Amino acid sequence: MSVKVDGVDHFCELPENKNGSDRFSEEGDSNKLAYCVTDIPPWYLCIFLGIQHYLTAFGGIIAIPLILSQGLCLQHDSLTQSHLISTIFFVSGVCTLLQVTFGVRLPILQGGTFALLSPTMALLSMPEWTCPAWTQNASLVNTSSPEFIDVWQSRMQVLQGSIMVGSLFQVVVGFSGLIGLFMRFIGPLTIAPTISLIGLSLFDSAGMNAGHHWGISCMTTCLIVIFSQYLRHIAIPFPKYSKAKKFHTSRVYVFQILPVLLGITLSWLICYLLTVYNVLPSDPDKYGYLARTDIKGDVIGRAPWFRFPYPGQWGVPTVSLAGVFGILAGVISSMIESVGDYHACARLSGAPPPPRHAINRGIGIEGIGCLLAGAWGTGNGTTSYSENIGALGITKVGSRMVIVCSGFVMIIMGIFGKIGAIFTTIPTPVIGGMFLVMFGVITAAGVSSLQYTDMNSSRNIFIFGFSMFTGLTIPNWIIKNPTSIATGVVELDHVLQVLLTTSMFVGGFFGFLLDNTIPGTKRERGITAWKNAHQNESDKTLESDDVYGLPFGINSCLSSFTWTKYVPFCPTHKVSRQDNTPSSLDSLDTKTEPNNDDTHIIAGVAL
Predict the structure, then answer these.
(1) Cα torsion for 205, 211, 216, 222, to the nearest 10°?
(2) Beta carbons within 8 Å of 402's beta carbon, 6+ residues apart
(3) pLDDT at res. 136
(4) C-alpha–C-alpha distance, residues 443 and 106, integer Å
(5) Cβ pair 418, 203 in contact under 8 A
(6) In this predicted structure, what is the pLDDT of residue 583?
(7) How many CB atoms lie within 10 A of CB 452?
(8) DSSP-assigned states of every residue in 101-132
(9) What's the CA dihedral at 513, 516, 522, 527 to 10 degrees?
(10) What are phi and psi of 108, to 5 degrees?
């Protein structure tokens, strides 16, 4: 979609595409951006595209509180679920503004992360945190009773404290510049099992939700697949007005940008019609009852119009040592993923490759975002959203002002209590159908990291296969035998229980250990190909200081102090040319292929 305002084109160069083709642009202007990172589009365009980015992240953001509600014993408390959804939207908006303004300063959206779901669900599955049997029976649950409130709030408080303490590690790693040292020892054979097991470990949640009505779930899955895969190259004409052309049409790839939202909305509407005409059973004990849309109908009326989330709204956070170690495993995975997102975002927004100080600052701000998420009580952290990075390539608008508008939109949506309440009325099988697609893509995204390695090598086949299998086997056995860990130290037992029931930690640990100890060349391990993925970036982009410098004159103030060149997150930070430590360009990009063709990033926007 090209953008023309008042008859004037706004274009800047994207890094060159060796293939010389653009399958997403009718005009073939694959190397043209309507607006670059530092450009400011008209206010109405900022608002429109900001809402679009919000809708693109919609599926991933609401999925997290809906999954957490099962571990928090909130399956039958729709009002509290709506408050969780509103809170995560609000915090995501705040973190987005911080990242765009003071962090990596690229047009990148922040939201909840699935990397923290595995350790949090592992913590909540421990014997002392298992939900009481009466909370699973809707007829026995009184959502306003002090006993029920204490049940779910005590679990949320321990999640809050663990996330806040664990996030401090990310803050230190980011602002101290240690992320470069971390990336030196982490390769594709560590990333592949870690990311893949995030999706695989959630199969039970997807199956449980989808199993309430497989027909509705399959319909939702099919719709999302049709929109995102079969119809993604079909542009829909929309009316548009400009002073030069007056009223005319502009073609937009709606199916590619919003497939999850369209699939959920259409399935939701069909469930509503089936409910109105009593096709679905009205007996709670019959199969298919949870596909009805009137089960939680009163939650919209009970929800307040305005509700301002605030820190400590669920009580004073408590800290669990086991929870902290589990969160650390998720935080490390999230950091590695975000470094790759920064490079992908820079390429699609016409910015130069992010320098070290920008990456350090971005990781540090994400750590602060996780700290805020823990304080506000989302039950999760924050990370960069790759779905929205792909949207940049479709809209051809790389301005960070658009993401600023999107951040404000999420804050506003988080304040409107009715918005969160509406999302809780989505039928459970529809959510299950969305999970089938979403978790499958997360699994495949991890496996795709193996493209950089030599998979004809028996060494690599062994490492990946062993890591994946142990990542599934050990947690499954520990869950079935929770009393098997008995070291004599209760705190140590809890730590081991959480870590060994977190699939991504077990698989990632063995992948890391074996990849760094079994002899193998850098080319065989995939390190060389991964490093070369960013070496041929185009230099015909905006100046680095204009993009990654701090705002409000902070750059000028810092440049007057000589000591700032030794601070890893300052724009004046200098790195020796003879330094052989991997720079930001040596980092591991889990989403970028080893050639300069950006279309694979755009093709993944739907999922």
Answers:
(1) 60
(2) 35, 41, 45, 46, 49, 50, 53, 107
(3) 83
(4) 27
(5) no
(6) 42
(7) 26
(8) HHSS-SS--EE--GGGHHHHHHHHTSGGGSPP
(9) 50
(10) -130, 130
Yes or no: say if 342 and 359 are a contact pair by the CB < 8 Å rule.
yes
In terms of C-beta density within 10 A (0-12 exposed, 13-18 middle, 19 or more buried), how is residue 365 classed? buried
Dihedral angle computed from the Cα positions of residues 315, 316, 320 and 326, in that order, rounded to the nearest 10 degrees:
70
Handedness of CA 447, 453, 456, 457 (dihedral sign): negative
Is a pLDDT exceeding 60 seen at residue 587? no
Which amino acid does the sequence have at 278? N
Contact partners, residue 559, CB within 8 Å, separation at least 6: 572
**Residue 13: CB atoms within 10 Å:** 14
**Residue 345 has which token pair?**
């975002």
5 in helix, strand or coil? strand
Instruction: Pull the structure tokens for residue 37.
Output: 């990172």
Q: Where are any strands of DSSP class E within 22-109?
A: 32-33
What would the pLDDT profile of 331-378 be if each residue is shown by its tens digit?
A: 888 888 788 788 778 877 778 888 888 889 999 999 999 999 999 999
Three-state secondary-structure class, residue 237: strand
Single out the residue of 401, 369, 523, 382 nearest to residue 460, CA to CA.
523
Closest CA to 365 of 165, 161, 104: 104
Asked if 522 and 453 touch (Cβ cutoff 8 Å), the reply is no
Range 47-50 contact pairs with CB under 8 angstroms and sequence separation of 24 or more: 47/405, 47/409, 49/395, 49/397, 49/402, 49/405, 49/406, 50/402, 50/403, 50/404, 50/405, 50/406, 50/407, 50/408, 50/409
Map tokens 């679990």 to a residue. 155
Q: Which residue has the higher pLDDT, 41 or 584?
A: 41
Paired with 238 in beta bridges are 250
| Cα(546)–Cα(36) distance, integer angstroms | 11
pLDDT recorded at residue 585: 38
Local structure of residue 229 (DSSP, 8 states): I
Q: Are 118 and 502 within 8 A, CB to CB?
A: yes
Average pLDDT over residues 581-603: 39
Q: What pLDDT is attached to residue 574? A: 58
Mean pLDDT for 151-165 is: 92
- Report the C-alpha gap between 214 and 487 in whole angstroms: 44
Tokens of 189: 């054979």
CA distance 33 to 256: 19
Give yes or no for a contact between 212 and 291, defined as CB atoms under 8 angstroms apart: yes
Residues 6+ apart with CB under 8 A from 318: 154, 157, 158, 160, 161
Q: Where are the domains of the chain?
A: 43-131+143-455
With 0-12 CB in 10 A as exposed, 13-18 as middle and 19+ as buried, what is 556? exposed
Q: Assign residue 250 a region: left if phi > 0, alpha if psi is -120 to 50, beta otherwise? A: beta
pTM listed for this prediction: 0.77
Between β-strands 110-111 and 8-9, what pairing exists: parallel, antiparallel or unpaired?
unpaired
User: What backbone phi and psi angles, to 5 degrees, belong to 75?
Assistant: -60, -30
Q: Are 358 and 343 in contact (CB under 8 A)?
A: no
Q: Which residue has the tokens 């929309």?
A: 238
Structure letter (DSSP) for residue 227: I
User: Which residue in the block uniquely carries the two structure tokens 């408050």?
Assistant: 83
Q: Strand, helix or coil at 32?
A: strand
